Amino acid sequence: MRTNIPVVKAILQANEAVASENRTAFDAAGLLAVNLMSSPGAGKTSLILATVERLPDTLKVGVIEGDIASTLDAERIAARNIPVVQINTGGACHLDAPMIRSALPHLPLTALDLLFIENVGNLVCPAEFDLGAHLNIVIASVPEGHDKPYKYPGMFQKADGVVLNKADLLEILDFDLEAFRHGLRILRPDAPLFILSCRTGDGLETWIDWLMGQYRLRRERHGR
Amino acid sequence: MRTNIPVVKAILQANEAVASENRTAFDAAGLLAVNLMSSPGAGKTSLILATVERLPDTLKVGVIEGDIASTLDAERIAARNIPVVQINTGGACHLDAPMIRSALPHLPLTALDLLFIENVGNLVCPAEFDLGAHLNIVIASVPEGHDKPYKYPGMFQKADGVVLNKADLLEILDFDLEAFRHGLRILRPDAPLFILSCRTGDGLETWIDWLMGQYRLRRERHGR
Q1: 3-class SS at A135?
Q2: pLDDT mean over A135-157
Q3: ipTM exceeding 0.95?
Q4: CA angle, residues B140, B214, B68, in degrees to nearest 5
């Protein structure tokens, strides 16, 4: 497999160049772009919907949905009158920066304050590809078990923030919160951990306050 | 990205040649090799442990554990005195046939009847790589949601059997079993679906009976 390493590097370099262009476009539009990554079914779409419900009405949100196939998640988003673009990767296990670039003309970028990018459900490959987002958020969920940071370190190392979803199941399932926290601290000592449940709404306020803080910091940095 | 397609094909062809060698080695040893694939935390290790507990004592089981990092799962297996080899992929998102080949000298193949191969937790990439196993089993779990066959069709298309684990949570969570079943039927009309809970043990008998049947069929085919 050694002969393929240069090819992979070339792909990653080309990806980073486009990611940088995407970031410039996001900054020019004055929006905060957030890349959501998780295992399949950890609650990326649910987190977007629960977050949008609780944000101030004045804040305009857009979504890019990444899936291998189907438009199921995009339909859930569109049903709330949120501008959404679906990217079907046709088998690819992650989103990359060129895919995001191709989606941007279909969104009212300058009218948006916040752009959620929902990556393909995969705790491995998406971590390798910078999309140009300002924040990488990793969503873990209680039923997946507390050992995920130890088993998928590459993903958690890329996290600017970690959401532990389905916390309403903490009482029922055998999940060692301290072991999870410890695994995360080894990889990303400074990344905040938000323990919440999109189903019950518990814990969402802290996540939303932090996200709003990140949004305001970025606006100030760009003098708006 | 078009220029990379020949490279990927070359990798897959090389992989298939080694997969075929692995299958020959498994047949020569008279064992049934089972490749377990799922999202992170769906219960691959738990299914192995729950299955081994309920198999006849005369049946000798071995395990190959695939993880990006850590030996957590292999330690759980070894604690039950089951021969186990850990493959740490060092970042790779799937097992491939050469990795399996390199693990085989570390197992008492001819003494084994059943070999479980626990793939990296990933509902996308492992489906592309034949390992030489006789059966590909996909494990879904109730908390992941019923839409997985629609969103990850490539994985379910490769399934010779599907396990729906954590069925004890069906009563608590909003999971549409008929929608799941329908999505699976579109992709693999003939693949059996085993609805079970490794935690409570409910539903495991049917899975084990089927697995034993597969084992006996294979032994007969090879005249043992």
Answers
A1: strand
A2: 98
A3: no
A4: 40
CATH code of B2-219, in short, is: 3.40.50.300
- Alpha-carbon distance A152 to nearest alpha carbon in chain B (angstroms): 6
Q: In chain B, whose CA is at the least distance from the CA of A174?
A: B199
Q: Determine the residue of chain B that is closest to A4 in CA distance.
A: B7
C-alpha–C-alpha distance, residues A174 and A183, integer Å: 17
For CA atoms A88, A144, A115, A154, give the dihedral sign: negative
Q: What residue ranges do the domains of chain B occupy?
A: 2-219
Decide if A23 contacts A96 (C-beta within 8 A).
Answer: no
Give tens-digit pLDDT for B3-30. Answer: 445 566 777 889 999 999 999 999 999 9
* Fold assignment, A2-221: Rossmann fold (3.40.50)
Shortest distance between the Cα of B215 and any Cα of chain A, in A, equals: 30
The residues near A6 (Cβ < 8 Å, ≥ 6 apart) are none
Structure tokens at B177: 């079993």
Whether residue A3 has pLDDT greater than 90: no
Contact A37, A137 (CB under 8 A): yes
Q: Give the global pTM.
A: 0.93
